TrEMBL record:
4-aspartylphosphate found at: D54
Keyword Phosphoprotein in record: yes
Posttranslational modification: Phosphorylated by CheA. Phosphorylation of the N-terminal regulatory domain activates the methylesterase activity.
Major location (coarse): cytoplasm
Gene: cheB
Domain CheB-type methylesterase: 154-346
Domain remark in the UniProt entry: Contains a C-terminal catalytic domain, and an N-terminal region which modulates catalytic activity.
Pfam families according to UniProt: CheB_methylest, Response_reg
InterPro entries in alphabetical order: CheB-like, CheB_C, CheY-like_superfamily, Sig_transdc_resp-reg_Me-estase, Sig_transdc_resp-reg_receiver
Protein name: Protein-glutamate methylesterase/protein-glutamine glutaminase
Organism: Desulfonema ishimotonii
One Gene Ontology term, aspect cellular component: cytoplasm
GO molecular function: phosphorelay response regulator activity; protein-glutamate methylesterase activity; protein-glutamine glutaminase activity
Active site: S166, H192, D288
Amino acid sequence: MIKVLIVDDSAVVRKILTEELSKYKDIEIVGSAVDPYIARDKIVKLRPDVITLDMEMPRMDGLSFLVKLMKHYPLPVVVLSSLTPQNSETALKALEIGAVEVLCKPGSAYSTLDVSRNLVNAIRAAASAKIRVQPRKTRPQAEAEVVPPPDLRFKTTHKVISIGASTGGTKAIETVLRGMPVTAPGIVIVQHMPENFTTAFARRLNEVCPIEVREAKDGDHVIPGLALIAPGNRHMLLHRSGGNYLVRIKDGMPVYYQRPSVDVLFRSVARHAGANAVGALMTGMGADGARGLLEMRENGACTLAQDEATCIVFGMPKEAIRIGAVDEIVPLPQMTRQIINALKDPKKGNPQRFKAANRSG
């Protein structure tokens, strides 16, 4: 049973969340709080496993409370925020500080049912997540890049890198892209995240990474030195036009309750890039991306999965390994270099190559 404390100044939101979450047998709402001061006392008394946290509250905002919480009493936190550009920036800061997941509140863009499904999955992921408190201040660029960018002296025009992640993926993707050289092939990325939040996420990555990073638009060309982030609440697919790759942004049913879906992207990469692609499935709960990665591998691509020790939640990579979709299991600090090695020679990316025939898990 996962014990949850709801921290939100809105009586309506507290009531909706309590009613919706109480429908699930593995979740128990142990209490609620209207502001961080009351939340502090209830955390000590009730000892919840997971907290849902609003960002805008009286007496103390959610971000300030999160800083204190992670310093003195680290707990898995799922942030609930409204869909505004300002709140998207705040939500990203919350992830940097140590929040496990950010989701949208019920509103015009997301129904109560949508939020309920996503919140339940986020709470389950948070309950099993490894809490890693991050320093709030971003280190200077020179200090952060302790590993020099890999050498990439070969033609990359027809190569594509595809990456999928969910819970814990924002930091994992940043780690990979920070080490990526400007000569790297075009990169397409799905990170499970609501709309607007992906805009802020791409903008932040563009500020700290050597390559250009932006939220994808329909028809964008996939070119060396550019990473495209799938927009929230839309699917992103890779297409090929002559000798060029481009992305299509489409609506469609969620896959594994996710839109954008990693599976949708990976399957399109398998179809249009084949052996010219490298796929990396990283931290996250559930199974999204595993089948798509398998299709990539069956079409000649080199496929990588983040290892358990460096995942916040070892769900999606574990499922990919279980079904035999993975060529190599890679710790996060070595992921960028391993992707580059696989691009240079997909058959010799790692002498300790994982035998993907191990389907027994």
